[in-house]
Amino acid sequence: MATATLSKEMLDAHPWPGEIDRDVLARCIQECVACAQSCTACADASLAEEDVVDMRRTIRLCLDCADICEATGRVLTRQTDFEARLSKTQLSACRQECASCAEECERHAEHHEHCRICAEECRRCEEACSALLEAME
Amino acid sequence: MATATLSKEMLDAHPWPGEIDRDVLARCIQECVACAQSCTACADASLAEEDVVDMRRTIRLCLDCADICEATGRVLTRQTDFEARLSKTQLSACRQECASCAEECERHAEHHEHCRICAEECRRCEEACSALLEAME
Amino acid sequence: MATATLSKEMLDAHPWPGEIDRDVLARCIQECVACAQSCTACADASLAEEDVVDMRRTIRLCLDCADICEATGRVLTRQTDFEARLSKTQLSACRQECASCAEECERHAEHHEHCRICAEECRRCEEACSALLEAME
Amino acid sequence: MATATLSKEMLDAHPWPGEIDRDVLARCIQECVACAQSCTACADASLAEEDVVDMRRTIRLCLDCADICEATGRVLTRQTDFEARLSKTQLSACRQECASCAEECERHAEHHEHCRICAEECRRCEEACSALLEAME
After folding, report:
1. D121: left (phi over 0), alpha (psi -120 to 50) or beta
2. Overall number of domains in chain A
3. Per the domain annotation, does C84 fall within a domain?
4. Is B15 within a domain?
């Protein structure tokens, strides 16, 4: 089962789902999970590249982005006593980190396919965070 | 993009991919990520149920399973200097945890839809771990 | 070895340590790690209490706080290509989460010793985040 | 407060503490948390070294070890419905990972102080896992 469908199904099965649009929320959870996965893989692939010396900043940002996306995905998944106020700052931190990581991976996208894929995933996650922040206004 | 496709694409883009069958590996990474997500959601939904007192064991096992699946998914994603020997024990721990969590969630599957979905995801992850352990022989 | 000493020793051993006051930074890393540990334990102890129904909000906030503190501790630990700008939003999210979790745990501090200890640890982490944010100005 | 004292205090405050020797358990939780912290820092410091090309294996093992120690520390912290059987495989995986990471860091201990500190912390965690596995027999 794709993670997207799973996130939506699980949100629908919660006894007290929060008041936020569940499609927007499920999409953001899915992108956080996918972005964490993509960044973990890109940090590792970058480490194995011949030009690893030039990839240090990418590796560092990908490791940070993986950790932040993973934590954000978990926080957003929890619907019990949900409070938008509390999730918003974490969501903003996640959006900022995804943007920074995307920017750096885009610089290497032409010569490293994993950076191209990762940059695209970071941009999708950045957008999903923006959409959810808007839905929380 | 579904996490499954993403995992496979990222493995293919690694400069030194390991020697394990990449379809089996990508499927296992995908299921670890999906199972972590499902268990985080099921622990939270169980906490909100009226019969939370009877759900304590489920919550505890789901929290453990989420942590173990997340760590296992990260370890399996890394292909640099991959050594099957090192991943095997973690993979066995993950398989065992998924089986225990599935067993407990199955006990609540009839009255809680989130437990039914979570039990199925845990079983899929258990099978994917078994398949990867076999591919590593 | 206490985590505090370890964090400081590891920062001192980095080939390109960042420009931030290392004592303030090491203290914040230490408190993030300790707070994640305390919140994981308090969520679990609260789940086992007879009044678990009244502890739902505590459990949810402790689980979030553990995830956010852990991610923040990892991000702050990384000194390669350190950029204060990037860590600040995550640090603010962590400070806010610690404050919310402390507030809720304080409400239960008289009847649950684990909540009293956890609230104190959350307040120490909140202060350490504030001190580091000031040092980053 | 040092993490060691915190872990012990929190275990003592649990309404249904497990049957395992709490000093041995608290020490193992503390070492898992400290080892995760040390490995995150050592991976990052190794990435910044001039000989990063020779540090790839260390970085990979440190990242894995951090993830596995963190998950193991969380699982061991949970006392609700504790079952030694379930923790044992994870604990064995953690001990094996710490041993492998220590071995690799020891190879770089003479020229990189962070590897020397990290190798010592990994060995302490390996021993604490062994002691807890023995206490669980």
Report:
1. alpha
2. 1
3. yes
4. no
Q: Which of A44, A48, A59 sits opposite D47 (nearest CB)?
A: A59
**Tens of pLDDT, residues C103-113:** 999 999 999 99
D4 and C7 within 8 Å at the Cβ level: the answer is: no
- Local confidence pLDDT in tens for the 137 residues of chain D: 566 688 899 999 999 877 889 999 999 999 999 999 999 999 999 999 999 999 999 999 999 999 999 999 999 999 999 888 889 999 999 999 999 999 999 999 999 999 999 999 999 999 999 999 999 98
Contact C100 A86 (CB under 8 A): yes
Q: What is the pTM of this model?
A: 0.97
* C15 in a structural domain: no
Inter-chain touch D114–C14, beta carbons under 8 Å: yes
**Whole-number Å distance between alpha carbons of A48 and D131:** 36
A84-88, C1-5, D54-58: least confidently modelled range: C1-5
- The subunits that touch chain A, with at least 3 C-beta pairs less than 8 Å apart, are B, C, D
Tell me which residues of chain C, numbers 117 to 136, contact chain A at a CB-CB cutoff of 8 Å.
Answer: none
Domain limits for position B76: 3-7+20-135
Count Cβ atoms within 10 A of the Cβ of residue C53 and give its class: 0-12 exposed, 13-18 middle, 19 or more buried.
exposed
Compute the Cα dihedral for B48, B49, B51, B57 and give only its sign.
Answer: negative
Q: Are A122 and A34 in contact (CB under 8 A)?
A: no
Give the chain D residue nearest B71 (alpha carbons): D67
ipTM: 0.96
CA D54/CA D51 separation, integer angstroms: 6
Chain D interface, best mutation among B64, B92, B96, by max D CB count within 10 A: B64
pLDDT digits 0-9 by tens, B48-101: 999 999 999 999 999 999 999 999 999 999 999 988 888 999 999 999 999 999
Residue C14 lies in a domain: no
Q: Which residues of D touch B63 (CB under 8 A)?
A: 74, 78
Give me the pLDDT at residue C17, please. Answer: 76
Token reading at A87: 């999730």
Residues 6+ apart with CB under 8 A from C91: C28, C72, C76, C129, C132, C133, C136
Give the CATH number, domain containing residue D91.
1.20.1270.360
Interatomic CA distance for residues D15 and B104, integer angstroms: 22
Q: Does D79 touch chain C (CB under 8 A)?
A: yes
Tell me how close the Cα of A75 comes to any Cα of chain C, in angstroms.
6
CB contacts, 8 Å: A41 with chain D: none
Q: Does C87 touch chain D (CB under 8 A)?
A: no
* Mean pLDDT, all residues of chain C: 94
According to DSSP, residue D1 is labeled -
